[in-house]
Amino acid sequence: MSFVLKTNQAAYLLDPDNDSLVLKRKGKWSSVYLGYRVEDKLPVVIKKLHNPNEMQTQLRFQREALMGFNFDGVQHTLDAWKDESGYYIIKEFIDGTFIASTDAT
């Protein structure tokens, strides 16, 4: 079931039940999805952090959401949001190969 996540900056379409849009389901800290910014259909990565009431999750959110990397090939954080359902970090989508899927020999 898809839904729209509305933040102060934009609205994002998220469909966590569509397996083709799931980049990582139920990792240690988060689940990661491919979504879209509603206004211009820009593909984005939406990271939802688990256990929003735990202090570690709150610290991780602050650390990840506020990082201001500005390097080519490194995802930029576009938006960050907290609501009653949890913490969300929206990053730009960079199409390519996952580093974890490469064989570093």
Topology:
Blueprint (H helix, E strand, L loop, with lengths): L2 E4 L4 E4 L7 E3 L5 E8 L5 E7 L5 H12 L10 E7 L2 E7 L13
Antiparallel strand pairs: 1-2, 2-4, 3-4, 4-5, 5-7, 6-7
Structural class: mainly beta
Helical residue percent band: 10-25%
Mean pLDDT: 84
The first-level CATH class is given as Alpha Beta
Helix and strand element order: EEEEEHEE
Supply Rg: 14 Å
Give unreliable regions as ranges. none
Give the terminus-to-terminus CA distance. 41 Å
The proportion of residues in beta strands is 35-45%
Number of folding domains?
1
CATH topology: Phosphorylase Kinase, domain 1
Number of beta strands? 7
Describe it for me?
- It is a single chain.
- The protein has one domain: Phosphorylase Kinase, domain 1 (2-Layer Sandwich), CATH 3.30.200.
- Helices cover 11% and strands 38% of the residues.
- The chain is built from one helix and seven strands, in the order βββββαββ.
- The protein has one helix spanning 55-66; strands at 3-6, 11-14, 22-24, 30-37, 43-49, 77-83, 86-92.
- Strands 1, 2, 3, 4, 5, 6 and 7 form a seven-stranded antiparallel β-sheet that branches.
- The longest helix has 12 residues, at 55-66.
- The relative contact order is 0.19.
- The mean pLDDT is 84.
Which terms would index this structure?
single chain, 105 residues, mainly beta, 7 strands, 11% helix, globular
